[in-house]
Amino acid sequence: MASILHVDSSPRGDRSKSRKLAKEFMAAWQNLHPDDVITYRDLKQTPVPHVTEDWIVACFAPPEALNPEMAEVLKFSDDLVDEFLAAERCVFSVPMYNFSIPSNFKAYIDQVIRVGRTFTEEDGRVKGLASNKKVLFITSRGAEFGVGSPYEGWDCQEPALRCAFQFMGVTDIQFIHANGLDMGDEARKRALDEAQSKIQELVSSW
Ligand SMILES: Cc1cc2nc3c(=O)[nH]c(=O)nc-3n(C[C@H](O)[C@H](O)[C@H](O)COP(=O)(O)O)c2cc1C
Q1: Residue 109 maps to which CATH number?
Q2: What would the 3-class secondary structure string for the chain be?
Q3: What pTM value is reported for the model?
């Protein structure tokens, strides 16, 4: 029995392709692992606050200096970190926005990367504290990013996500990209079919 965190970030509801694909993955996973415990978070329903000056002060204060007001400022972040650390596997659905990630998922990352909780420093080097988990990103993109396509080399989404989660010590990171979703019906169908078969493959090997 494993604990799985599933987070959706698209601001679109039922029209969201990334949500749909993540839902398919989770349904297939639950079919194979009915006893797993799923925690679901929807960044559309429960928006993540941006980092503020008070948050930065509280975040970097030594534990003995933390007063109740500062603890309150960190409460939302603490809950996100607890939820993330408790999960053995995480499934994040993330659309591409302006070649990277939507601001709500960046806000999520900013709240989860926490000194003393998800990373620390040892001998002057950063050490991630969230190494014991597998992370899967299911992304949706309007354009193509393959070799020879107009946007080859423009994908800043996968590197941004990899860096942030590797920084927290995660080494097992996988991606399922659905590319070309806004390039007409034929391209969309092909992209969704490909993503769906990758989902079915990964469900049995993850
Ligand atoms: C504000 C905005 C910015 C976008 N930027 C890009 C982009 O840089 N590259 C791209 O390929 N698609 C881009 N798209 C298209 C989305 O990635 C695509 O429609 C995707 O399916 C959205 O995910 P969702 O269906 O889960 O909401 C953008 C869409 C929006 C609304």
Answers
A1: 3.40.50.360
A2: CCEEEEEECCCCCCCCHHHHHHHHHHHHHHHHCCCCEEEEEECCCCCCCCCCHHHHHHHCCCHHHCCHHHHHHCHHHHHHHHHHHHCCEEEEEEECECCECCHHHHHHHHHHCCECCCEEEECCEEEECCCCCEEEEEEECCCCCCCCCCCCCCCCHHHHHHHHHHHCCCCEEEEEEECCCCCCHHHHHHHHHHHHHHHHHHHHHC
A3: 0.97
Containing domain of residue 109, as a range?
A: 3-203
181 C-alpha to center of ligand 1: Å? 8
Q: How many domains does the chain divide into?
A: 1
Give 19 Cα–ligand 1 centroid separation in angstroms.
Answer: 13
For residue 1, the model assigns a pLDDT of 86
The best mutation among 97, 103, 157, 188 to test binding of ligand 1, ranked by most ligand atoms within 8 Å of the C-beta, falls on 97
The residue nearest atom 28 of ligand 1, judged by CA position, is 97
Ligand 1 pocket, Cβ-based, cut-off 6 angstroms:
10, 12, 16-19, 95-99, 140-143, 181-182
Give the tens place of pLDDT for each residue, 81-129. 999 999 999 999 999 999 999 999 999 999 999 999 999 999 999 999 9
